[in-house]
Automatic annotation (TrEMBL):
InterPro entries: FAD-bd_8, FAD-bd_FR_type, Fe3_Rdtase_TM_dom, FNR_nucleotide-bd, MRET, OxRdtase_FAD/NAD-bd, Riboflavin_synthase-like_b-brl. Residues 211-311 form the FAD-binding FR-type domain. GO terms for molecular function: 2 iron, 2 sulfur cluster binding; flavin adenine dinucleotide binding; metal ion binding; oxidoreductase activity. This is Oxidoreductase. GO terms for cellular component: membrane. Its cofactor is FAD. It comes from Amycolatopsis taiwanensis. It is found in: Membrane. The chain crosses the membrane at residues 42-63, 84-103, 123-141, 153-174, 186-206. Its main location: membrane.
């Protein structure tokens, strides 16, 4: 049974238990009363929305057992979609409960809503929680996220923890499914307690212990091009850090004005037990500032994260495809596969030669291990000797045996999706396609 099925089975089991709470709380017998159906729907949507909130907690806790098997991309995508379900279920809970009480009391909706929000115990807390959850949902919409900085998006999402705490206490103190049920309260405390503990250990406990052990600092900053730098990071006992080529960390550089910002950057070299290396392009304020970071700056790193590693391969024949600055994990993987003496082909896609950062290092590694390297330059509409660039004929011309290879793709989301679609059309089995999306929480 796969990890995905275990997650769905666990969610279904908790959904059944939540439904049992509703039934044991006389939910079925109250359906015949005035407004009973609406009240029942309100209670059920509230319970299911709270379960979806716990699922979000688990998905974003970055538990090593889950993250190493499913990858941060998949967990983040599921977290995002479960977040929208949380918002819709919570909104439905408010609507049904308000309409149900209105039918019971024989009042109109607006006065009933006023009574619930301002004159009912702990409903004010729930109102704040709902407002925060709606704000999180709005900032997670693709149209909104394109207009806000990563730092702003990350800061807003920290308020989600407050929303969870407020919603929890609203349920256990006023929820009909809990106030008269010691078993229900014990179950709910255990469920939320386990989720909070998982987040605290994975997101705080383990990173703090690792950073105390390794004492990371910037060793040097090397300019690769006008807007790209490579940062070398040293520390103590780095051979004990379980980092792999293809993975990434959330990095905090502890300067006076930037210590609170966390940025996800992939390793651009295979960890050697002495240094960690990242290569960063100036795409925003945070990454542009890294070009001027002084050596000696203390660094906090959370991770490593990502399932984009050599463990995913099914054989010894490998195709690595990089787009733009997505070359960083590909370069690290090439180094690891080179040491293993695998049969390697590399395709590096960039619009212009100056955009092909680390191309010289790829050439050197390819010569050392006998890999075939293709640097493909030109605009997205370019047409080459085999037809449209990165189209089926183009890739098949460069890699005639592509069907038997494990393919690792990293680049901007549009490029990654297009290349994967092309590879599927070429007959590459799904189990041999491995990708890393070069975007935050998308």
């Amino acid at each position: 049974m796969t990890v995905t099925w275990w997650l769905f089975a666990l969610l279904a089991l908790n959904g059944a238990w939540a439904t049992d709470l509703f039934v044991l709380g006389n939910g079925l017998t109250e359906l015949a009363a005035p407004g009973g159906l609406l009240m029942g729907l309100g209670r059920l949507t509230g319970l299911y929305g709270a379960l979806a909130l716990v699922l979000q907690f688990v998905l974003i806790a970055r538990l090593p057992w889950l993250e190493s098997r499913l990858g941060m991309d998949r967990l983040t995508a599921w977290h995002r979609w479960s977040g929208f379900w949380v918002v819709w279920l919570v909104v439905a809970h408010v609507v049904f409960i308000t309409l149900g009480y209105s039918a019971q009391d024989g009042t109109s909706v607006v006065p009933e809503l006023d009574t619930l929000v301002f004159h009912t115990e702990d409903v004010g807390k729930a109102t704040i929680a709902i407002s925060l959850l709606i704000a999180l949902g709005l900032t997670s919409a693709r149209a909104m996220r394109r207009r806000i900085r990563y730092e702003t998006w990350h800061f807003v999402h920290l308020f989600g923890y407050g929303a969870i705490v407020l919603a929890f206490f609203h349920q256990v103190t006023t929820g009909q499914d809990f106030t008269g049920s010691p078993v229900g309260q014990a179950y709910w405390w255990t469920l939320y307690g386990a989720a909070l503990t998982a987040v605290a250990l994975s997101r705080v406990g383990v990173p703090v212990l690792r950073n105390l052990r390794h004492q990371l600092r910037v060793v040097s900053v090397v300019r690769e091009s006008r807007d790209v730098v490579t940062v070398w990071i040293g520390g103590r006992h780095l051979e004990r850090l379980p980092a792999r080529a293809g993975q990434f960390f959330l990095w905090r550089f502890l300067t006076r004005d930037r210590w609170w910002e966390a940025h996800p950057y992939s390793l651009s070299a295979m960890p050697d037990g002495k240094y960690l290396r990242i290569t960063v392009k100036a795409l925003g304020d945070g990454s542009a500032w890294l070009q001027r970071i002084p050596p000696g700056t203390r660094v906090l790193a959370e991770g490593p994260y990502g399932a984009f590693t050599s463990d995913k391969r099914t054989g010894r024949h490998v195709l690595l495809i990089a787009g733009g600055v997505g070359v960083t994990p590909i370069r690290a993987l090439l180094e690891e596969f080179a040491w293993a003496r695998d049969d390697i082909v590399v395709i590096y896609r960039a619009n212009r030669r100056q955009d092909a950062v680390l191309a010289n290092e790829l050439h050197q590694l390819a010569r050392w291990c006998g890999a075939r390297l293709h640097v493909v330059l030109g605009p997205p509409t370019a047409v080459g000797r085999y037809g449209p660039v990165m189209g089926p004929h183009h890739i098949a011309g460069m890699v005639p045996d592509v069907r038997r290879r494990d393919v690792f793709v990293c680049g901007p989301p549009g490029m990654t999706n297009a290349v994967k679609g092309t590879l599927v059309r070429l007959g590459v089995p799904e189990k041999q396609l491995h990708s890393e999306r070069f975007a935050f929480a998308s």
